[in-house]
Amino acid sequence: MSNSIAELKPMQIWKNFAALNAVPRPSKKEEKVIQFMMAFGTSLGLETERDASGNVLIRKPATAGMEDRKTVVLQAHLDMVHQKNNNTEFNFDTQGIQMYTDGDWVRAKGTTLGADNGLGVAAIMGILESSALIHPPLEALFTIDEETGMTGAKNLSKDWLKGEILLNLDTEEDDELGIGCAGGVDITASGMYQPIASGNGMSGIRLQIKGLSGGHSGMDIHKGLGNANKLMTRLLYACQAEQPFGLNSFQGGNLRNAIPRESVVILAVENSGLKNFEKAFQNEREAILSEYLSRDPNITIEMEAVELPKQLMSPADQTLLLRCLYSVHNGVFAMSHEFPEMTETSNNLAQVRVGEGSIRAGCLCRSSRESAKKSLSMQLEATFALAGYSVEMSGDYPGWLPEPESEILQLVSRRYEHLFGETPRKVAGHGGLECGILKDHYPEMDMISFGPTIHGAHSPDERASVSSSLKFWKWLCDVLQNIPKKA
Q: Is 173 a catalytic residue?
């Protein structure tokens, strides 16, 4: 344990965070941290359980005089993202995180810090072991595998928790209240085509779009950033209208939750039509660059000669593909009526893989409203089906729809104003939180999310503010003291 970190204030958080970070806890490999948390609860003489998935639940009775208050579920996830710099030698399976202080920040030496969501876990540990804090009946829920599938939350029993209020401690700005999040579903379209041979008198061409900003397909989708797959489709469609060509391959995008930054196409054009094709390419290229100058200033769109590919799509299959990809909705589909600045529903055309007779396109459709997510996913399915492609939907998880009249929202906001003299920001993020899944399991439970300031999560630049943790601790303890009575 790092003594310097353990002695930071509030010690209730930092000494537990130091102890937690001494335990390896990568997603899907949480057995050591599960054992750590089980031992912690047992050592306090508290009722401690784990379920078949590895989620841990520790129950603590109310302090004297608080027995008539509503039971509160304190929730955080045990796993952390394991990333390191290329020049850092570190074994996440066996080593604890090496931490140090940098002014007001706590950082890790060349790796992720694990403040996401370790500070939330540590704060709950501090509440559980305290004999001085005033609080209602508590259920401390520590979930597993949040970062790579939320399988702990998904597999949680629907009758394990008894609480009426859930405080999720996984928000990363200390003046922010998380009041909603998006659910999502992966949509994969696939098809086959019969390649034809390229003809004599043709030349090979390689088109590439790169340098786009990319970004998170949930949190950044409202910014109107360029999607390399959609822009490449637009470019090809415009060129085809002026000069026929044969498509050999189309490769774009990578992760489902990332806006694609690059796309590469190989095609063939009749030598007699090369000048027409180049003119069409340059016209559309200039139009795209002009449109995206302020949003994606580093975008480049290049064309170069390459070896003539041996196989091409037939004109009919190619036209069907391009029409389909052009028709697939990408970006914001609807904004929230309750919270006008919040993205409610969106889609990201994340991946396109075409070549050697195979077609595959992958999307991530998101919405905080389940009915809207279902509607857009069906629209996307219909678009792909019109082209004759088969569609598979997988990885479905529910969103968390904001409830403006939520009792716990009003309470937590009011206590913040009382303590700090200002109104917290209310944010319904378009990314995913476990709250959506937990709300699906426990629809009557009132939920809110808040936490200390953490920057650079999921990267070796991750850092946590010490002063913010003190503010967060004060806020959390005050909220627990003011939980309303049972109805």
A: no
Report how many domains make up the chain.
Answer: 2
Q: How does pLDDT run across 242-270, given as a tens digit for each residue?
A: 999 999 999 999 878 789 999 999 999 99
Q: Which of 79, 434, 440, 462 is catalytic?
A: 79
In angstroms, the first-to-last Cα distance of the chain is: 44
Q: Which of 344, 371, 397 is the last residue of a domain?
A: 397
Q: Tell me the C-alpha to C-alpha distance, in Å, between residue 112 and each of 59, 63, 87, 105, 398.
A: 30, 37, 14, 14, 28
369, 344 contact by CB (below 8 A)? yes
Give pLDDT tens digits for 304-318.
999 999 999 999 999
CA 86 to chain centre: 24
Is the Cβ–Cβ distance between 447 and 409 less than 8 Å? no
79 included as an active-site residue: yes
Which structural domain range is residue 191 located in?
184-397
Residue 126 pLDDT exceeds 70? yes
| 10 upstream amide cis, omega within 30 of 0 | yes
Nearest-angstrom CA–CA distance, 478 and 472: 10
Q: Whole-angstrom Cα distance, residue 35 to residue 144?
A: 12
Q: Cα–Cα distance between 328 and 350 in angstroms, integer? A: 11
Tell me how far apart the 2 most distant CA atoms of the chain are, in Å.
Answer: 89
Question: Nearest CA to 484 among 449, 451, 446?
Answer: 446
CATH number, domain of 270, equals 3.30.70.360
- Residues 41 and 137 occupy one common structural domain: yes
Choosing from 145, 146, 172, 446, the catalytic residue is: 146
Residues 6 or more apart whose CB falls under 8 angstroms from that of 43 comprise none
- The tokens for 56 are 């841990």
Which CATH number fits the domain that encloses residue 128? 3.40.630.10
